[in-house]
Write a structure and sequence with these properties.
Layout (H helix, E strand, L loop, with lengths): L1 H55 L6 H15 L3
Amino acid sequence: MPAKSYEKHKSKLFTILLIVFASAIGIFFWKVIRSNIVLTSCSEIALNSTHVQSRGNLFIDTTESYELNLNDCLVQAGLN
């Protein structure tokens, strides 16, 4: 009797497993891969904008400027 029940609901089971697997891949991409891509992009943006600011004055300390630009970019991206 259980074998007939399995054969009867096999397609539904595979469909549910496919949906769960696809959802897990999507969540992993959204949480891990996307955040790494955004962090790398924001770091490059902050570094480039800091270099632009430091070109005007060689003696300016751009450490705080980099952190502010990085945090601003991360907030705009929704990560911070």
